Amino acid sequence: MKAEQQIDNTLHRWDLINTYIKHYSFKSFLEIGHDRGQAFDHIDIEHKESVDISSITMPTYVMSSDDFFEKYDTKYDIIFIDGLHEHAQVDRDIHNSLTHLNRLCPPKVLLGRSSDLKVPIAA
Asked: What are the average pLDDT values for consecutive 10-residue runs of the chain, which has 123 residues?
């Protein structure tokens, strides 16, 4: 008798992100906290960028999210916050991300994953 194959029904964060991208025909994505590219590598979108302080993970921008937002004024259709999981930093990332969402692309979508931010938020 063959062993039954396990079916992985896990909903990953990139599945949720890709659902928003497809549903709203988003074209640009920013991930704060590239880490090892777990989510970033699965994102299916025309233009995607990431920012992380570690160059080992090969993000688009090697710098803190604070420095990124201060230096660049690029607008994105959807932003995923998964950087430094400290309350003050999450607050700054949310505030800064809201000013970098594409105003021409309703709805504006900002998603996050943190111990302080347990559910997705939509702006």
From this structure: 55 85 92 80 93 86 94 92 76 88 66 51 48
